[in-house]
């Protein structure tokens, strides 16, 4: 008889591979199916996050920040370096090596936890008490049966209808992580995480970067943070056009022309490359959903409840292919929850305490409610902001821009939201997430000893400000 | 004053319940409406809230006891006042009212797994926060409750494990009713097959507009409910039931929809299905699915019914003989739609085919009515326009 797995996982991104490893740890007989291949046609674990997302972009952000610092800012420390030259191939090779190291790391964790790894594309084939998937690689379909299926197929970049990706001048995140030369004029459509991070990378390396955002700038972040970010990025030379829509475009051999429309009218602007980062679409096609009656909504998302259960028994879905923010850590935690639920545990994901991070300079990070959301909900709150310009450690590091902002319930003092723009905001936010998870009050933060001098004192000082009011 | 805590009226069809686990011990103070105990009937699990604030003076019936409606299971002393409970609201109003006890993430998980109510744990953390340690301490203090957890039968290599688990009341009742049906009715099954192409085409054509218009997906179940109601109208005996030496004809069409859940099979009832639109049927079934999954179906929703649809097709069943759901006299078994070669006008063609099975009580339904009613269902599905025109 053909083998029956306890769990089959479709996708090996941060939702799928984390779920697979957790299933393995829990003693479940697990198979993870993934069809990601690199340019050399080699299978690669880790999905978008590891291969063309979170990790390689962080590598380039770090490198480009060093480059900019060396070129512009070492002087103020009294360090003269003469001329600074960019060696882009080396920078790219370093990025690639980091990705490969982590690719192999996942493979080793699969081995250690006895997770079977199948390369190919999986689709539902039949339901017969358990679930049968058909895994196709190189044209040979192979059946895989499992009691539980976790769909973790992720998402892909959305295209502009009038300007499809061409892999050359009009690119998505994949292309913008691998330019072979610094484009002179880079147009970025969208102003989300991908747009701002990769826009920052190429600006630091010498591109003139224009960001086009149809809404107000960073509209999902706290408004005060968004205003500060806009000020900082503009000062750095990012040319940001909010409330501007790209209504048309044309790519030729030499350049890409975008038609931009805002309140004052319409005009054309030419670029050498255009990064389209207007959001991502869930990967739910070719899953055989119709075959087994798996629900997929009109936008392609798979409807699930708060425990990631789909409409089918023992079929779960996690990550970008379901509701909620498209974040790697959200996918991973959903993956862990589902693995532990399959093993009979009562794990939950606290969707109210998922941190958001944008790795620009300064970094932006937040968790919980924004001030405008609290206002709209008619909730009574108190707030305090503490500037990094008053934080010793930040000043010593020449990182005095930005602030920490706390929002707390006016009656109970329970923390409702924490917003940080400033140095290492991505790291500082974890303290706020822990605080929210433990239902902390702002006074709790004020009454916990923080080391001095540290950036984290800014959180504590913001809490002290709230306390003294 | 001592107030008797009684088992509430369950429902006409439910006579007994099992006390699952007391959330309070004798001598403990309770707030009004605080859940005292969970009762499991053969259909649902009910919570029994405290009718008044007071002290739980005595527990008359312990965990696991079988009780009837009206049985006294505990005594509540409404004169006893707990200072902590009395004073707490006043204090809370002055300082800060916390909506729910604050739990750490690990404490929350442990409490949920072990069925500990956060309210019953005294928090030792900063600001009275309930920690993992607090939940663990509460668990140790609690008398061993009946284990009703899912069984993990993943065998370790080389082991031949065996585990004896008492049937839940729901399972017992299902077992009892199935055996009763088998031993009293003269069950016979007639089969037919239906070409699903017309329904599939109609659904493919309108499913987007249907969803937009009605906010619910157009599935196949609404077609089957409609087709079944049409057949039942044509052959009223199939919608009837036996009561002693009488046949009771029902002038209404309450269709049971069998739903598999983690706790066992439940059959919520779609009332007056003849008066429901396709959208109302789909919405009703979707709602049942959600409620069944969350264990939120009420006794009312699970009682009665004049005919049942059982869809083994979702699990891949090709053919089966469903057992009656007494006192109903017939049940329709749906199965998996599979592409099969069939002969049509002298040609072999591929069609999406489903086998249908109608089990019926031969005591009151003759083969003729049974077969013809199944044919009527088949014909309505193969030409759905008939559902509209009622021909």
Task: Give the helix level of chain B as a range of percent.
Answer: 25-40%
Query: What proportion of the residues of chain A form beta strands (DSSP E)?
Result: 25-35%
Q: Residue-averaged pLDDT of chain B, rounded?
A: 82
Helical content of chain A stands at 25-40%
Radius of gyration of chain A: 24 Å
Count up the helices of chain B. 10
State the assembly state of the protein chains.
heterodimer
Task: Describe what this molecule looks like in 3D.
The complex is a heterodimer of chains A (469) and B (391). With 469 residues, chain A is of the alpha/beta class. Helices cover 32% and strands 27% of the residues of chain A. In chain A, the strands form five sheets. In chain A, strands 1, 2, 3, 4, 5, 6 and 17 form a seven-stranded mixed beta sheet that branches. Chain B is an alpha+beta fold. Chain B is built from ten helices and 19 strands. Chain B has helices at residues 83-94, 105-114, 132-141, 169-184, 197-214, 221-234, 278-294, 299-302, 367-382, 385-389, and strands spanning 2-6, 16-22, 29-30, 35-41, 45-49, 54-59, 66-68, 72-77, 187-195, 241-243, 246-248, 255-257, 259-261, 264-266, 269-270, 307-311, 330-334, 338-344, 347-361. In chain B, the strands form five sheets. In chain B, strands 9, 12, 15, 16, 17, 18 and 19 form a seven-stranded mixed beta sheet that branches. A four-stranded antiparallel beta sheet of chain B has the order 1-8-6-3, with no helix packed on it. Chain B has a four-stranded antiparallel beta sheet with strand order 5-4-2-7, with no helix packed on it. In chain B, strand 10 (241-243) and strand 11 (246-248) form a beta hairpin. Chain B starts with a strand and ends with a helix. The A-B interface holds A 6, 27-28, 126-129, 293, 295, 298, 305, 309, 311, 313, 343-348, 350, 411-414, 437-441, 444 and B 96-98, 102-105, 108-109, 112-113, 125-127, 129, 149-150, 152, 154, 208, 211, 217, 219, 260, 289, 293, 314-316, 336.
